[in-house]
Amino acid sequence: MSNKVIQLERAFIYQRNYLVLSNVDFELNEGEFAYLIGKTGSGKSSLLKVLYGDLPLNEGYGKVGGIELNGMSTGKIPNLRRHLGIVFQDFQLLLDRNVEKNLSFVLKATGWKDKTLINDRIDEVLESVGMISKKKMMPFRLSGGEQQRISIARALLNHPELILADEPTGNLDPETSVEIMNLILNLSKEKNVAVLMATHDYNIIQKFPAKTFKCEDGKVHVAESESLFLG
Ligand SMILES: Nc1ncnc2c1ncn2[C@@H]1O[C@H](COP(=O)(O)OP(=O)(O)OP(=O)(O)O)[C@@H](O)[C@H]1O
């Protein structure tokens, strides 16, 4: 039996008192890549937020990277976050410091202390996204695609079992989107990292077909291929 990195059983997902998704049964295996699609407002970001501990799971069962989501106190969130990497549409790099300091900030915040180990890990993740030459650059001097590579490097820092990506190609031109997709898929394979990627980018889905979950009418289901392109 393969290991599950995400397990949701009969989960109900709320934004405050508003029920966004009901009765969600959802699983992702170790090293598996899957898309999460659905119209604007259908609940993709809400589902991802539950998975990274930004929204509580009060009804149903949930486990991510071996950590149970139910009744998780705020104090346990850093522990959950150490098991996963998050990539956003708008990169969310700290603009007041260079690439290296963006990455060391995350390592220090997650308990790394040894300067040599920190430096070595930063070099490793930058090498893996092809950005070692940008180590001393300020984020605003990088292109969108380069900034997304740095944010992927940041997501890899703590050897995650899972990367949650919310529209990672949403701010990129089509050619750069393809480059970023190739990078994400290669890293997922090489490092056996599972990826759940929310997207509206049907060109990308067509070009890189994979298992696809769809949020629709308050439910999540595995999308049939013929329904993928109907919005
Ligand atoms: N903070 C909030 N408080 C109350 N309702 C919210 C909040 N955030 C989102 N919602 C509602 O929850 C529903 C799901 O939103 P969500 O952001 O998960 O959708 P989405 O599928 O990610 O949309 P998009 O593709 O536009 O990012 C929407 O109806 C939205 O209006």
UniProtKB/TrEMBL annotation:
Origin organism is: Moheibacter lacus
Q: Which residues form the ABC transporter domain?
A: 6-230
Q: Name one Pfam family in it.
A: ABC_tran
Gene Ontology terms for molecular function: ATP binding; ATP hydrolysis activity; transmembrane transporter activity
Which keywords are on file for this protein?
A: ATP-binding, Nucleotide-binding
Q: Does the keyword Nucleotide-binding apply?
A: yes
What's the name of the protein? Answer: ATP-binding cassette domain-containing protein
Q: Which residues form a coiled coil?
A: none
The record, for SUPFAM superfamilies, names: P-loop containing nucleoside triphosphate hydrolases
> Does the keyword Nucleotide-binding belong to this entry?
yes
Lineage in the entry?
Bacteria, Pseudomonadati, Bacteroidota, Flavobacteriia, Flavobacteriales
Its Gene Ontology cellular component terms are: plasma membrane
- What InterPro entries does this protein map onto? AAA+_ATPase, ABC_transporter-like_ATP-bd, ABC_transporter-like_CS, ABC_transpr_LolD-like, P-loop_NTPase
